[in-house]
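Re: zinc ion structure - here you go.
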Amino acid sequence: MSEGRLRLTIVGGFLGSGKTTWLRHQLFAGGFPAAHVIVNEAAGTPVDHGLLEGTNDQTVLAGGCACCDGSQTFQDALLEICDARSQMTDPTQRVGQLVLETSGLADPAAIVDLIQSHPVLIRHIVVHETIVVVDALYGQTALETEPVAQAQIRAADRLILTKIDLAGPTETGRLRRMLHMLAPGAAQSGSSFGSPVDLPTMAAKAVVLPKLAADSAAITTCQLDLGPDPDWTALTLWLSALLHAYGDQIVRVKGVICSPAGRLLVQAVRNRVPSPEVLPETETAAPEDNRLVLIGSGLSSNAIERSYQLVRDTG
Ligand SMILES: [Zn+2]
């Protein structure tokens, strides 16, 4: 029985998938009337909630993930909201529903479990829907390397694909097939900056998903060979998109690139990319020239190479 209980919608998705953008537009369009929005960020410094500020009530939970190390804080916040709701005598002033934006590394199923196994919360809250936002450009990479990205899809009732224009119809079609294999019951739809867009046709051919152990996200090093004459424009475009989506995962990027402006030392720490430093010219290309080294957790050389080729070939 859900009568009288507060409906909770969980909005999940991997780091950089576009959860905040999607949610902000839904809230603005009145998609979650009278919602109390809970924004959870695993990092100590919250960023996303600033993007969501508006007319809704909001609780920000930073410095711990609701599905694991921040679960106690999350439960306490829910209890407090339920308590305030039952004390509110004017029904028009009451919270109508709850929306949780999870951290990018949360498993929504663990959050559902947490509520359903809690003796008090289960009487006050019913999990209405789990919506998972998937980045069409990097979603496949995440599914191939991150166990939690697969877990997020499996937990979804509904999947929202973003950045379809960047990924292109073939890649998106393959990703759709992959998502369908992981979550056959989840409806898929497309979104661009919060507005609905058509999805490309799902690829007919089955795809192979690697079996990932829960602890496989060790720090690894990938090397991307850019060839003798790299496309500087495509490279900078790709790198900024990569760091935007995986800034939390990529720890370090370094390489010397021969560009029209000379030999450039490109460096990034997390998602900060300072202006490249111009290095002295050499008679012959050094062996380390035009190679980019990326260090991070759960990086896949193949996936990184493919995403670069995609940007270069479509650029
Ligand atoms: Zn967690």
